[in-house]
Amino acid sequence: MPILCLIRHGESLWNKENRFTGWVDVPLTDEGREQAKKAGEILKSLDIKFDIAYTSLLSRAIETLEIIIRTLGYNIPVIKDISLNERHYGDLQGLNKDKVSEIYGKEQVKLWRRSLKVRPPNGESLEDTQKRTIPFFERAIKGDLELNKNVLVVAHGNSLRSIVSYIENLNEEQILNLEIEPAVPILYDYDIYNKKFYNKRILKI
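^ 2,3-bisphosphoglycerate-dependent phosphoglycerate mutase, sequence as received from the core. Prediction below:
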């Protein structure tokens, strides 16, 4: 039975500086690289052989995946697609989150960051992000699962929130409280015959 593994990239420079990142291409920190290595070690201990991997076009996700693959010790075909990019934070990109909260209030910033439909200024809502991630997920990622392939996806907090909320059919309140931690593998088994995901496992050290 095929396995889907979702992993958010490790800590980036702007994560460390508490800044909105979005589509700005910032690198991993040394801590982020260590987090990626630990994620790879967790997966290696499970003795799962992945058949294909997906990531975004942003270097923090690509490097996280490269470190995981090196740690696993075998080659995996990699597909990079813009559909898996982080949500676009518009005018907030590059700004410190605490300073933005001081200006607009914590509740407004929480809505921009966590809600389904509220867009940051000139940016994407999570619902907007789903409009690109979910069709790609259905066509490519789920398509490989249907072929009985184990699939590894390394992407971003919000592109993965959109996928997890779709897989688990979460309501808006549940989506508001959904967090995806850096470099923590989330595994689902996929039932090819019933076309359902089940047995969710969040693998922390």
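The CA atoms of residues 69 and 75 lie 7 Å apart.
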